Amino acid sequence: MALSLRQKIGQNFFIGLSGKELTDEERSFIIANNIGGVVLFARNCETPEQIHQLICQVQEAGQKSEEKVPLWVGIDMEGGRVHRLKSPFTIWPAMRQLGKLDSPSMAFRFAEALGRELKAVGINLNFSPSVDVLTNPMNQVIGDRALSSDPEQVSKLGSGIVRGFIKADILPVAKHFPGHGQTSVDSHVDLPVESTTLSELKERELIPFKKVFRARLDIVMTAHVLFQAIDPDWPASLSEVFLHQILRKDIGYRGLVITDDLDMGALRNRWSQEEIAVQAVHAGAHFLLYCNDPSSPEKAITAIEKALESNIISKNIIENNHKLAIELKSKKLKSYSVSSYNELKHFIGCGEHQELALAIKEGRILEATSQADSA
Predict the structure, then answer these.
(1) Is there a smaller number of Cβ atoms within 10 Å at the N or the C end of the chain?
(2) Is 169 annotated in the active site?
(3) Closest alpha carbon to 174 in 210, 137, 123
(4) pTM of the model
């Protein structure tokens, strides 16, 4: 049976889940709409066994959808205050501590170790690293989530993190393009408006993104920030200027683009849910992320369908986005299956990882134990 356009649209959606088990409504929605991925939050995570079981439920639903491909199971695990998984998982320091070490080897080892623990419960994608350059020291939104205020330092450490996740079979997602480090407004609440020029972005914020792109990054996340000197009408997440002209043409990025949560106040305070979804696709986003409001994905998919009917969005865009999404899964999730929890549970909170986390916290560089550690 051929996929409907609605099902092709659904493959490019990431949705949040309400609790620690998959509800009947969520299962039905994933199956009917061929949803491509889910994102986990603290509300979904209790014990390693429970998280593993939830992911099994998600993947079982995916196997009942029309395409029967694995779902992306994403999470925000940066370290520090953005840390969805609690003990017995290893508790990692904020990325500022890793930045102080200034060691690409330690950055690589951190990401590989964290990636092993994610893989143990079935998570296959991490919304990390944040490669924002902390240009505003008063920025509490990013703050200690940033590796550094030095673009070159963020570049080399961010690249090490990307390579470490890839080594652990976790898909990294660098964020927040083109940079969230200058802001003072929290985009969860309202829209940050910045006066930064394109030349200033090129001299600072864009440097780490170019570097991590060369580290074989497959997905980049956008920022809900309005750069009024570059695109006075749309924030980067909804901007053709940023996603086509700057990201594709100027920088030459060939990977895929995911939005930050499209229900954040930065967008919802100014545009309807329907406008946001349609503009995100029109601007060049491949994946749309909806984290908290369970009614949003349905409204967004329907809005995109209507935009197709009225030729606001070309059918070719939907076809191409779907094709790219499936190709990425074929490349990265070809052999993916939710392993038996007992198979990998020894990685969770193991002594080696605890020692590494403590060393980062205390500012110590551990001697590499293998060639891979020095990557």
Answers:
(1) N
(2) no
(3) 210
(4) 0.95
